[in-house]
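Write out this protein's structure.
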Amino acid sequence: MHTIGTKSSSSGPPEPDGDDDEADERLRPARSPARDLLPLLAGAATTTAGVGAVLALADIDSPLRAPFTLFFLLAAPAAAVATALRKLEPVGRVLASLSAATAVNLLVAQGMLAVHRWSAPGGIAAVAALSSLILLLVLVRRLRGRTERGRAS
């Protein structure tokens, strides 16, 4: 017959009883499901936007082409601008980045129409290039800020 040992004090953290994996599970704080969901949603959004850009650039006929391409045209510049506005409150950052995404799309369309070079693949490429440029400038600014702070210390 197997006996079960009892502990005299239950106020402190549980004592490991030889099984390290079991002790680690008891001492580790529980992860929130929302914390696990955010990277998953970001990956799904990136995949959806990428598929939309590929479908439009490759001129593939698919019922998903229009919604995925529209998602790319809104998400790419919005994500780049949202990265730049990291210090804003979340609601303000979402509104500002969606407004900026709309402005980027309108400026690309207006510029292409003004020079008589309108094409859907060209517009998608231009939006992708501008979004990449915005993101690159933000990353360069952050890296430059880190090196200057490192020199000042």
